[in-house]
Amino acid sequence: MRSDLPKVAHVAAGRPLVSWVIESAAALGPASTVVVVGHGADRVREVLPDGVDAVVQPEQLGTGHAAQIGLDALGAIDPEDVVVILYGDTPLLTPTLLERLAALDDGETARLVSARLPDPGGYGRVIRDGEGHVKGVVEHRDCTPDQLGIDEINAGIYAVRAGRLAEALKQVTNDNVQGEYYLTDVVGILVAAGDRLSAVESPPEEVMGINSQEQLAAARKELQRRTNQRLMDSGVAIIDPERTYIDDTVQVEPGARIYPGTHLEGATRIGAGSQIGPDVFAVDSTVGADSTVWYAVLRGAVVGDGCEVGPYASLRPGTILGNRAKAGTFVETKNTTLGEGAKAPHLSYLGDATVGARANIGAGTITCNYDGYHKHPTVIGEEAFVGSDTMLVAPVTIGDRAITGAGSVITKDVPEGALGVERTAQKEILGYAQRREARKAAEDAED
Fold first, then answer.
1. pTM of the model
2. 162-171 vs 63-74: helix axis angle to the nearest 10?
């Protein structure tokens, strides 16, 4: 991966790779789930969901060794229980495939997942007998020339009866090119003992492992396609699915309309009837019903029902827009609440502010909330009218229905219903333009 981040902790469509695998496995209703961790164990633990145990493989001695550590961590289990063994870097696995894998018949010891590839590359090959029964798996490095010609590969995904798995793992040796304990040897050991095994064939893309940034991008694209398809099936209108990026963790209610260039991430929620995009980035934010958000960035913001955001607005963490509020063109907010029906239509910065219902913020208004050491609050009352290009030097309060004159620097509270104006007297200097032009002409002549 060319990265300091452990492979299975890389994120695709809103979840770490290993979390996608765990989520698919959860559909089986397992009695317990164990993740065997090695390189970067602490960072992998950080991304594991609740209820999942992690056990460390101190030395990476192979997949068979890892399976033994995982089996030991399960403790005492019924020998007839089914143990499913998965790789943490296969995020495209589906619950349907795993359900087929784990549904062992009576008298069946194990199942493995296989796939057919035009170019099997470095995968282990599935070896069958003349009747098509699985009789073994050979790793790519140990294949004979004839075995390299087999196009059916082993995906490394198994379901095995617990008792027989434990017995077979004890017989696995490291007598191979890599000097490792191969989990694939369990297949041959069980076949040699007369156990019945079968293979569940999967589409190749579903069992694809991630070993590069290129493969991660391909998996991300497929996961995004699935997420968008699920949303469209529920009634969400996505205008151009190939140019819309929605994390699996995001909730979008039916009836919402999503335009191209939209990125919705984290715990974002979109209400019914809202129009999002084009070109919106929203992370961990909520947009209510029937709102419009376009050409905007939302980070940790809450937007109510019937609101308008953008174009070119930036709602930073702590922003709350009440129902029917507006943060318009080139408006930036941070830790600010706009009450119901309040409007900041354009070209304003509101930080650490509380704006009352139906108040109007004129163009160019700024809350001067930082004195170089501390942040200070600004309070603007209901139905207040803040004139264009007003500087509100916090801490300051503008009362209900109060007005500030355009171009004012307000440093003192403005009482309810009052007009606050701060301007120097305007004066006119007659003939100034002519004298200015004369000075310039004299300078040019001198040059």
1. 0.90
2. 140
